[in-house]
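4.2 Preliminary Data

To establish feasibility before requesting continued support, the project team ran the inverse folding procedure on a target of 171 residues. The structure was first converted into the token representation described in Section 3, and no sequence information of any kind was made available to the design step. The complete token record follows.
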């Protein structure tokens, strides 16, 4: 008895849902809601499931689609002469205004100031928990390039966060 396309899709998606959601939450800062990105990505992925070459590549397949959706969204904002860098419409990750939410907000804001490659690399490694080799495959880069992106991204993130902290304390 063969499985339906929907059953196959769910079988592939359920074990990676948490990693994919963490990636989307960290990656969308200020551009769109993470839930919208997840939904749009899953819709496109379901429609294009036949093009997936390997079941092991499913998470990378989702990442690629989500990055393309974000890029298209950014282009639409730019074409409408809106300021895509304006993060004022950003909503904190949860409805509770706790100190943790504020810290997460500032982390996401700082991440948004990194280059695309560094941001994606840090999110994949630090937040989503991928290994360097896996990130190299996803980003179509060498392992040394991934290590360099991580090193430079961490350094830049530290500089941004230190500067933000000094601004808040008035030093």
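Position-by-position output of the design step:
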């Amino acid at each position: 008895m063969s499985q339906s396309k929907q059953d196959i899709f769910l079988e592939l998606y359920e074990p990676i849902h948490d990693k994919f959601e963490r990636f989307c939450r960290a990656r969308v800062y200020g551009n769109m809601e993470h839930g919208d990105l997840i939904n749009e990505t899953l819709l496109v992925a379901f429609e294009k499931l036949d093009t997936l070459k390997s079941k092991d590549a499913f998470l990378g397949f989702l990442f690629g689609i989500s990055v393309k959706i974000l890029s298209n969204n950014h282009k639409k904002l730019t074409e409408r002469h809106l300021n895509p860098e304006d993060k004022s419409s950003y909503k904190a990750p949860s409805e509770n205004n706790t100190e943790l939410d504020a810290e997460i907000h500032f982390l996401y804001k700082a991440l948004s100031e990194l280059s695309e490659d560094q941001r994606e690399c840090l999110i994949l490694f630090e937040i989503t928990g991928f290994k360097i080799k896996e990130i190299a495959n996803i980003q179509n880069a060498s392992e040394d390039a991934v290590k360099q992106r991580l090193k430079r991204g961490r350094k830049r993130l530290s500089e941004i966060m230190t500067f933000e902290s000094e601004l808040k304390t008035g030093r």
